[in-house]
Every structure is written in structure tokens, then in C-alpha cells.
Hints:
Blueprint: H1 2-12, H2 15-22, H3 25-42, E1 49-53, H4 61-65, E2 70-75, H5 78-87, E3 93-97, E4 110-116, H6 125-134, E5 136-147, H7 152-162, H8 176-180, E6 188-192, H9 201-214, E7 221-227
Parallel strand pairs: 1-2, 1-4, 2-3, 4-5
Antiparallel strand pairs: 5-7, 6-7
Amino acid sequence: MTGKKEKNRIFDLWPDQYDRWFRTPIGALVKKFEKELLLDLLRPGQGEIILDAGCGTGVFTLDLLSFGPHIIGLDISLPMLRRAGEKARRYPFEIVLGNISNLPFRENSFDRVVSVTAMEFIEDGKGAVKELFRVTKRGGCVVVATLNSLSPWASRRKEEAKKGHTLFDKAIFRSPDELRLLAPVDGVTKTAIHFQKEDALRAAAEIEREGRERGLNTGAFLAGRWEKL
């Protein structure tokens, strides 16, 4: 129990730093391409009920809400949840303090379920994805995005962890094949963010275009999509 509380406190310290990164020029470009891939896979619709599992500070919340769904944002960090709630206070958005591995919802509760960059911090990935499927309605979809182990971004995070970066100390990075195997049904995976943090903005945009055209599976942002039969 103590270990879980300490883990939660790590996330509690990150709302400002997390949001500040996405306001930098390269961070804004990263968000742009990540958002495009998420929307392509999730396809949120008017009036749908969507679970954002591990929503953090709601980085993508307003993007999803712009399509008219009702979103439940769940996270283990109350400070992050509160930040998400502030951003989306004028929209149909509710926050719930909880754990992806033990979701406080009934079966078949949501039209769509999405989880972005939370699976890195869950050792039992299969168990967590099973929970996401459990609360998804039949005919609905589950979308999970994580940091791709095949990307240099993951290698950099591992080096940061060795230097004492507590957030990535026990992070688990998965490949496209490993992500697909977490789900009980076949699905598809795509990647984005083929450029590096140090690349100039114009060069980064061109690298991203080339990566997409070539269908590379080494982009830092790895997303999988499955339909619940």
C-alpha cells in the first residue's frame, strides 16, 4: 500500500511541468501529431460516453470534447484530475479518482475507452487492458497509446531513469507487437513522432511526414485500437 501511495505522489508533483512541456514549440508539435493519430483511431462522436483512463491533466480532453461526447476522466492523481477539470469545466466532463487496473465502473458502460501514456506505469498490462475491455460496450472500441520501446525517445527515458529520474524509474515501454498482445482480440497499431526532441521544427514536420508515408513502426507515440466484439 505504501508503495502505491508513493507512486501516486510522484504524479501529484507533475501537473505544471507536464503541461509546460506541451506549450514549448517542439512540445506543441508533438501534441499536434499525437492528437491527429488519437482522433484517427478513437473517432469520438456526438453524445457518446467515453472513458479517458489515466487522463492526467487532460492534455487531449478538449480535443476529444470538441466532437460532442460526454467524457469521464479517471486518474490516480487528484492534482492532475483537478487540472483536467479546470480545463474542461464548461464541457460535459467528470473526474473520478481511481486505478485503471480496478475500474470503478460496471461492465459495458462506455461507447469508447481511451488511455494515453498510462500503460507505461502498469506492470500487468494484460490485466489493465482486460479492465478497459470490460467497461466497454459491445461494438465499441478501446484505444491505448504508450511510449514505443523501439523509439529513441524510450532509450532516452531509460537513460534518464538511470540518472535518478523518479518518474521513469520503473516505467515499462512496449513495442507494437507487445502492445497488440495485451488485448484479447486482434487490433491495429500505428505510430507517430518519428522526429527527435532536438530537431528543428521545420525538419521535424518533414521527418514526420516521411515516417507516416513509409509506415514506420518506430515512432515514439505508439497507439493500438481494438473493437469489442
